[in-house]
């Protein structure tokens, strides 16, 4: 039995009959840039997240970049974030000439540690601290970072809070949905996300009208009026095609999320029943509703060998992320070295993502656990 890490064809078959007329209508209109489909999706996303405003953009990466541009991040400014995340989080900071300041993660959730965040800010020389502008907590794997202490630290240090919610649409923290807790929420609609398009796409949520207005300008080259540019932006527009697809998918999202959460519960029960909890670490739901964009286990000392074994048995897996950002070659000028962020480095050596997509069948989950049990039984 082959079990893929992700199979989007199963999802497509569910919604094909609803998608076809929506896309046909768009093709007949031949209106592909912004317009009504994007406006409708923005309204739907704002309502879904509980945000005042939502602005459709070209990708999750550009959502981060535009949020930083909106608050006028300049070369030399400092932005706090995690070294254990997808490259775009720090890449957006660095691209503007600002400096990512990495903060180690909580070992249980793999999200930025508020304790380490406080220590990092406290240890900063005043000459550096006065350039500190923002913090980007990453809601990793589908679970929100511990936002309350982060918000307190941000308020005490006059920092803008930009939530990287690329993996966490629908996740909740103390009754609030991801993307509405800080000043900005950044979402990705990459096809593998819980709400994925037919290509790249993203969204920025905010509660602040002035931020919404500037985001609108920046996504069209800074043009407040046609051919009149008040600032330098870029081409950061969300395609109408992606908006049309996402509008069809969004009403299904909560059901798909419950499917993922049910699968996570089944994995936990099967691993427990198989007596594997001394060999592997399961995801910890600590900060609220986890939406399981990935189901990531920890396997100290056996991760790579187990992954090879699962591959041989036809089971798809992935490693998110094998090289922490402070050790990436392109950030060598930041001076990062092994040992700087031990929890991030340990996670990079131990974590493995298993199949979790909503259409996964119970027997497929049973097979994954059986193969992992088989691996450890033979060791």
Describe the structure.
- The chain is built from 13 helices and 13 strands.
- With about 375 residues, the chain is of the alpha/beta class.
- It folds into two domains: about 10-250, Aspartate Aminotransferase, domain 2; about 255-375, Aspartate Aminotransferase, domain 1 (Alpha-Beta Complex).
- A hairpin with a 2-residue loop joins strand 10 and strand 11 (about 230).
- Helix 1 crosses helix 9.
- It is globular, with a radius of gyration of 21 Å.
- The protein starts with 7 loop residues before the first helix and ends with a helix.
Give the strand order, joined by hyphens, for the main sheet. 1-9-8-5-4-2-3
What sequence of helices (H) and strands (E) makes up the elements? Answer: HHEHEHEHHEHEEEEEHEEHHEHHEH
Strand content is 5-15%
Query: Total strand count, please?
Result: 13
C-alpha end-to-end distance = 23 Å
Major beta sheet summary? 7 strands, mixed
What's the helical proportion of residues?
40-55%
Number of domains: 2
Second-tier CATH architecture of the largest domain:
3-Layer(aba) Sandwich
What is the residue-mean pLDDT, rounded to a whole number? 96
What is the C-level CATH assignment of the largest domain? Alpha Beta
Shape: globular
Q: Going by CATH, what is the homologous superfamily of the largest domain? A: Type I PLP-dependent aspartate aminotransferase-like (Major domain)
